[in-house]
Amino acid sequence: MCVMAALRRGRPSRPVLSVAGIHAAALELVDEQGAAALTMGRLAERLGVQAASLYHHVVDKASVWEGIRRLVVAEMDWSAFADRPWDLALGVWARSYRAAFIRHVNTMPVLYTAPVAEPLTYQMYQVVCVGLAEGGWPETSLAEVLSAVEYLIAGSVLDHEALGEMFGRAAEMGAPLLAASIRSRSQVVVADRAFDLALDGLLIGLRAELARLQP
Amino acid sequence: MCVMAALRRGRPSRPVLSVAGIHAAALELVDEQGAAALTMGRLAERLGVQAASLYHHVVDKASVWEGIRRLVVAEMDWSAFADRPWDLALGVWARSYRAAFIRHVNTMPVLYTAPVAEPLTYQMYQVVCVGLAEGGWPETSLAEVLSAVEYLIAGSVLDHEALGEMFGRAAEMGAPLLAASIRSRSQVVVADRAFDLALDGLLIGLRAELARLQP
DNA sequence: ACCTGAACACCGTTCAAGT
DNA sequence: ACCTGAACACCGTTCAAGT
After folding, report:
1. Residue B98 half-sphere exposure toward CB, CA atoms < 13 A
2. Chain-chain contact of B122 with A173 (C-beta, under 8 angstroms)
3. Which of A63, A162, A188, B64 is least enclosed by beta carbons within 10 angstroms?
4. Maximum CA pair distance of chain A?
5. pLDDT tens, per residue, chain A with 215 residues
6. Chain A residues with CB-CB distance to B175 below 8 A
7. Which nucleotides of C are covered by protein (CB under 7 A)?
8. Å between A7 CA and C3 C1'?
């Protein structure tokens, strides 16, 4: 935290805001305080500025969320699709995808439901789709393979990070077994191993399905 | 739609609102216009009443969402856990769970991320957990079995209903393969069959895992 | 071009006034 | 007890005024 002089009325001698800085501050805010804490007012406050000033750099709040999406996607690794077999590359991508969302769980409710309007994200999907297609997958199956992987990840991340919060009132509200199970399950290692198992299982299933599709 | 006389200032001779009526109207609103359309103002309007009046019956907006959760959960079928083997009951429950959320897709973003504070939902989980435990599953695995099933469902429902909206700009933003795949995949029947296959696969995996756990 | 301050419509919520 | 109308703090967004 730095103390900053209040800005005077007119244009500052050097710009105090930038698109990248706004997006970075927004992600920080969401990481620290959750998706609901991201308001234009609080984001501006964190940047030492008025809410209205943000609109000189971003068109609206939805575009701030797409900036956040870019930062999270940029942490993923889809490079293996360039030169490795599709199943191996899919495994590398899925693990990095999961790791990125574990670092930024609070972004999930929004990023998993808002329409994607962010070029880097589409670039990533294009590379993944090309890799799968070159691996022999028919066009009609690509979207389904992707959603299978993505929602396995979503489930795993929420299981890893949010299950306790989601079902926090299980004990007092008539679900003692669920409460006990969540309590006893709480080591991170378990969730990680469960993901590895589930991903390996999915990859086995996908290889079998592909063999069935192209005899 | 019925034309209603504007209400006068004081207490009406017969109550015009009820908790059940508010929850039902809220679910209708979300089904028709999406989660963002649920505001206390628009909900009140639909009920022919002022927003402030709602607070005589519900404590806050979050409790309205929990009322919606109850209505969706009430459409699910967990009766088979009473007298059928755990894997069969899990299959029946999962299919009814999926069908309920397909009828109410717009509720998913909120219901899947907001903490559960609704007794019927916990009752359902308790019955499911008891059924699994009686089937031989150790307490430590219950939460993971549940999340595996739930996120398979989430993935399938979003694939079924929302993939086109989510990736609507794929074609113009550099992901032509993804766009083509979503277009070519669009028959509902495919998504249904894919879910049946995936669920059967998951059940096979779970039976194997249970056998490994209790030799 | 890039900031402020004031304004707008809307949001969830509270509460005194009225029957 | 149960509705209205007025009020509150907050929200996203616009825009004229200022440098």
Report:
1. 27
2. yes
3. A188
4. 72
5. 444 567 777 899 999 999 999 999 999 999 999 999 999 999 999 999 999 999 999 999 999 999 999 999 999 999 999 999 999 999 999 999 999 999 999 999 899 889 999 999 999 999 999 999 999 999 988 988 898 888 788 878 877 788 888 999 999 999 999 999 998 876 666 677 778 878 888 888 889 889 988 87
6. 122-123, 125-126, 129
7. 1-7, 10-19
8. 8
